[in-house]
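Technical annex B. To support the medicinal chemistry partners, we prepared a structural model of the target in complex with NAP, based solely on the information shown next.
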Amino acid sequence: MKTAIITGITGQDGAYLSKLLLGKGYKVIGLARSDTKEGMKGLEYLGIHNQITIIECDLTDITQIIKILNQYKPTELYNLAAQSSVSQSFANPIATFKFNTISVFNLLEAIKITDPNIKFYQASSSEMYGRVPELPIRENTVFHPLSPYAISKASAHWICVNYRESYNMFICCGILFNHESYLRTDSFFVKKIITQAIKISKGEQEQLNVGNIDIMRDFGYAPKYVEAMYLMMQKETSNDYHICSGGSVSLRDLIEYTFNKLHIPHSKIHIDTNLFRPAEIENIYGANDKAKTELGWDYNLSAYDMLDLLIEEEEKRQ
Ligand code: NAP
């Protein structure tokens, strides 16, 4: 039986990836910074919490990682743990940078020391590209990060490339664009608009307060995006891949679509300039042909298909 270690097991992607790997017969070891019941909600929601071994681990301490690798001898390690919020990174830039980079150095160093054959997946982000010269973004587009989060992810990405080139290790970076699911926390945009729109439709909330909604993003569906993580780790040689839908929509369009579906007048949208970010990417979408061709990744959902799925799931759970 193959063993996979997943960091960030309490997050959205950690839960969906665990479900996928369990279905493929893996033993899954999940690393979490603390083993709280609250943190296991996503795994419980998917009905898999009893099938995963959860280990508390501080990824800023390499000795703890080495001990875990020696004990569980994984074939694959998926690094999903990160301070993942762009807004939070403006509030806590140094802590974001420290954790999102040191954890990657420690994991790669620990693999190099214990067993350099362990395959490594890094959760890179489209935010690394920031201000781009042209669209769609391709895997070789130059990075111009526009937030502390993006800077931390770009640094972590280059740490991975450097270890791959220097030590011939199997290291894949999945460069994922925004992807959403029922398991997102309310602080993320799509989840926020769906949960608050449902409240407005029930008369429990007056209006939706949002920042700059004229920016455009490439949105996808998380349970499908984790399939690409698995696929790139099954290749003979490691490489980096865009995982994205291939098109962008404005946040305004997403809100209006949701409001129309729930019969809410657009006058309930309130723009709050205090919610604007210091620097913002205006439009971003990627090309996903490399992942589709080389990995055989199958994806054809639009942002509106994704919204339909999430609104339906959210309404079922109310
Ligand atoms: P998420 O739901 O925010 O989960 C992040 C995970 O990282 C959680 O398990 C969290 O643990 C852990 N974490 C955060 N700060 C930590 C710290 N200081 N020490 C230890 N653990 C920490 O994120 P996600 O949506 O699953 O995304 C997975 C990865 O993909 C992240 O690296 C993210 O940056 C990257 N990514 C996500 C997207 C997206 O649209 N979702 C796009 C591109 C890249 P707690 O539960 O304890 O907080």
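Notes passed to the chemistry partners:
The domain at 3-179+222-243 is CATH 3.40.50.720 (Rossmann fold).
The first strand starts at residue 3 and ends at 7.
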